[in-house]
Amino acid sequence: MFYLVGLGLGDAKDITVKGLEVVKRAKRVYLEAYTSILTVGKEALEKYYGREIILADRDMVEQSSDELMADSDTEDVAFLVVGDPLGATTHTDLILRAVEKGIQYRIIHNASIMNAIGCCGLQLYNFGEAVSIVFWTDDWRPDSFYDKIAVNRERGMHTLCLLDIKMKEQSIENLMKGRKIYEPPRFMPVSLAAEQLLKIVEKKAAEEKTDKNALAADTVCVGLARVGAEDQKIVAGTLKQLTSVNLGGPLHSLVIPGHMHPLEMDMLRLFALDDSVKELLTSSQ
Amino acid sequence: MFYLVGLGLGDAKDITVKGLEVVKRAKRVYLEAYTSILTVGKEALEKYYGREIILADRDMVEQSSDELMADSDTEDVAFLVVGDPLGATTHTDLILRAVEKGIQYRIIHNASIMNAIGCCGLQLYNFGEAVSIVFWTDDWRPDSFYDKIAVNRERGMHTLCLLDIKMKEQSIENLMKGRKIYEPPRFMPVSLAAEQLLKIVEKKAAEEKTDKNALAADTVCVGLARVGAEDQKIVAGTLKQLTSVNLGGPLHSLVIPGHMHPLEMDMLRLFALDDSVKELLTSSQ
């Protein structure tokens, strides 16, 4: 059996009991290490699980599935994924390849940012489409996610913004020369996401492309860091304020609320950066 | 500490290791027993956890939070919730009451239907707003969820339909007489949800209120039962076909796809009821 096992969001103990049993008995244990960052390191997992873990990078998963799945028709192989195996990042291609090879698979679900985001108090069924905010470069500044946020807000829905991470990025020079030399991993903090978003907001305002649901510098948004971990941080502040918060290490997420119920506002007030934000959360947004 | 512990979706072993540690050391362990149905019973949990579990019904949670949270300022109390504590059903009111009483709380996240639904192969970030389909009665047949599905489809988004469950329902007579006598629990199967939906589709067609994105009897939809459990079932069939599938015991969910990527269609084909559905999943929907 080929098991896709979700690790949840915090540390080694966020695996489910069922998942841990699979890890302990599996012939080989892989850790998907290119689309997310575990709050604890591979070593912490190895120590807690008492198993050697093989890091699986994108090349391995996409090009060496024979190797990855070897013997999983007769023995158990575990493929660990931070969060849920089919959460923010999907591994359906892996499932399809398993089925093609006649290998049985099973998914051991766990929390992912897509549902744990409920910890900020905004109700999951009031979230519309999630968006991704990527690192801008000097000449590539995509802003299409703004329109999705706008559509969600128009319908009163909240938006979860998944923030970019770059795990094994090659410089353009190394890429062109075919050198497998990678830049250090980096992740987008809430402050940078808010900054990029604020620039779009200002541009739209200058072009007078705004309406009553439009985001503004004083719209209350929610910044989250390390959701599910012991040192999780949640702050509610205006978009402008969030450009200067420091929420520490990865991973970060940003939520843009739509219409809020009183109970949702009550919850966000718990995380308000200051009294002016509490004030904004008392009046209807 | 007042712990809200997610149990995940399958059986007793779907709790996280961290959650299990809390359950084992808590002074009291409650199980929220009115918004969801655990695939295994309370007894199975008690046996596996080695702890007595107190069933918490709606009255208790909404009216007796003093009792529920007693001593949790100095000791650990665990409140177990099927899925994620802040998943399809929210318990933010409980958190607010804890904070009001000066009691610290912690959430132990887990999978919920809101993210585990990814098991059907449709990608989570392509889901729009989720909807609820409730039991129709002779004189109460709400259909507003249809418009939400239509809006999602117009934007190419998938829709997760959460299907009604009635856990401690009183008959109108008993309710009026103030008798706390409850009807047996019931849950909506995929077939009934599809039937209700098909009736709306036919009504809209008769009123000529349809467009190219409109749902039709031959739209491929996905029926799911007991997601995350060992005997989970997933079927892809036309809306019409789903009105006559029998997916067994609770809980069921229904997904109405929007625009599908080739990889998503490849996955759905794994669950196709018959070749005609596979055919529909080859052409673009």
- Major sheet attributes of chain A: 5 strands, parallel
Number of domains of chain A: 2
User: Strand order within the widest sheet of chain A?
Assistant: 3-2-4-1-5
The sequence of SSEs of chain A as H and E is EHEHEHHEHEHEHEEHEHEEHEHH
Gap between N and C termini of chain A:
51 Å
Poorly predicted regions of chain A = none
Average the pLDDT over all residues of chain A and give the rounded result.
91
CATH architecture of the largest domain in chain A: 2-Layer Sandwich
User: Class of the largest domain in chain A in CATH?
Assistant: Alpha Beta
Query: What class would the helix/strand composition of chain A place it in?
Result: alpha/beta
Radius of gyration of chain A: 21 Å
Catalytic activity (chains A, B): 2-[(3S)-amino-3-carboxypropyl]-L-histidyl-[translation elongation factor 2] + 4 S-adenosyl-L-methionine = diphthine methyl ester-[translation elongation factor 2] + 4 S-adenosyl-L-homocysteine + 3 H(+)
Organism (chains A, B): Littorina saxatilis
Family (chains A, B): Belongs to the diphthine synthase family.
GO molecular function, one term (chains A, B): diphthine methyl ester synthase activity
